[in-house]
Write a structure and sequence with these properties.
Order of helices and strands: HEHHEEEEEEHHHH
Helix content: 25-40%
Oligomer: single chain
Shape: elongated
Structural class: alpha+beta
Length: 197
């Protein structure tokens, strides 16, 4: 059974999930603690303040973008949308480093939680259907194909790299060869590290 699951995962290909970090739940918990004295205080009617932490909890739990071999699966608080790679014309980047998917009819769909630093990951998961503008990944890495042995072997006809010439040693400056010994040096034997006899 485990072998069957491994084969199924291998057929699915790579998958990347972009979501709000789970540390956001700590902030929601802190907000709930801060709202509690007001909501349950002596003045009644403020229990509705718990709506804010609850809404944030739903937002953090639902909002994500999942990239698979087939395409992008976008999930927001109130809906979801599937975008196959074939329907995408490309990606657009906003001024705030957010990424939008550009469809064939030039409409743009926001990709929640995807930023410009994630573009190499999108290119890798799409297996080259989306190009990596940063140039971090090579074509072989994107498509999953390995280069031929002739391409990876170093060319024997290349000349070996030249070694840098040794730097000339600096000429000694005219003057005393040794500095004047200090009073401490005279007590310890002239600065040689041996105690004076």
């Amino acid at each position: 059974m485990a072998k069957k699951q491994q084969d199924q995962r291998a057929d699915e290909g790579r998958k990347a999930v972009f979501r709000i970090p789970t540390t956001a739940y700590l902030a929601i918990g802190l907000l709930t603690v801060c709202v509690t004295p007001i909501a349950l205080g002596e003045i009644g009617g403020f229990q509705w303040l718990y709506v804010f932490p609850l809404a944030l909890l739903v937002f953090v739990a639902r909002t994500r973008t999942v990239a698979t071999r087939e395409g992008l699966h976008i999930r927001t608080v109130f809906g979801k949308r599937d975008l196959p790679w074939s329907s995408l014309k490309g990606l657009a980047i906003t001024n705030k480093a957010r990424v939008r998917a550009v469809l064939g009819d030039d409409t743009q769909v926001s990709l929640p939680t995807v930023r410009t630093r994630h573009l190499p990951v999108l290119a890798l998961v799409s297996e080259g259907k989306i190009q990596d503008p940063s140039g971090v990944l090579s074509d072989e890495e994107l498509t999953g194909r390995k280069p031929a042995a002739a391409e990876t072997a170093p060319d024997a006809a290349e000349e070996p790299a030249e070694e840098p010439a040794p730097e000339p040693s600096p000429e000694p400056s005219p003057g005393p060869a040794e500095p004047e010994p200090s009073a401490d040096a005279e007590r310890t034997g002239g600065g040689s590290g041996k105690p004076a006899e």
